[in-house]
Amino acid sequence: MADNLHKAIRSMSLDDDDPITLPDEPQFRVFDANATSILGRLLNPDAQNMARMIEFMPTAWRLYNRVRGIALSRDRFQFIFEREEDMLTVLKDRPWSYNHWTMVIERWVPAPPRDFLTSFEVWIRIRHIPLNHFTTDTMYLCAKKIGRVIEFAYDPKVSHTTDYVRAKVAFTADSPAFEAKNLNLPSGDVVVIEYEYEKIHKRCFGCFRLTHEKSSCPYSKKKNLRLVSKDAAPITKDPVTSLIEGRLEGPPGFPLLFPELPPEERRMAIQYVSHANETERKARILWVQQAIEVDKDNPPASLKKFSHELNKE
What we know:
- By secondary structure, the protein is an alpha+beta fold.
- It has helices at 2-11, 31-34, 50-60, 84-92, 136-144, 218-225, 239-244, 263-273, 278-296; strands at residues 37-42, 67-71, 76-81, 96-98, 101-107, 119-127, 148-153, 164-172, 180-184, 190-197, 306-307.
């Protein structure tokens, strides 16, 4: 009997099964309800229990009976608000965290773009900008290293009483949240620029990403796999590894990838697009190219939006 059942299952095909056709009628749509809702993503679902998060967040927002949550998957969720003003308040106070790990939330849209819930806006604090280079252009250059610059909270006409300047950037959720970067000065000196991320509590102390603990860091594990004995045979590097480690010329006969990027950014971009699946690889290359075009349209610091409200948001 088991053999007959197995043969019957193998003989089945999708063509034999009648598909489910969803009628284009109002009772099968929730567009009106979704209009006052947000969609979200847990960046570290291993440390963020979905059910507990849905129960907790209305309390954190002080909305109690005016919002309800829906678990869509292990890391995706939706909150539907009774009042639009409540939803706008929640969106204004982003980023939000649960169990000390960051969540990405956006207002619902009927057709989400490809990069939906992959980045979020965050205020950063930049420290140790050199006195002789304390200009808006230097601020922009330092902030741009973290993400696309949206706004500065800085007024050059008033006293500056803090040891940092604030900038709002669009931060890619899967990127490292660096604590510091070296700034090479024209004099040849090097200054360490430090970054602090407002409302972000936890991150991996190995790779600085917001998606896992250090104990489960996949990037640290990859590094450990490379540790071999001195007597071990030399490892032949594939073209992708060679590109990542600094030889950025690419295979003979192929066009140079992302030549407009600085070496370090180009190395990171090539590492990002290196994927075994050809379709995914082409999609990632397209995303990087689109990001480069957007960055080209990004105006210089002198044309950036500056707010004189130093403690904005």
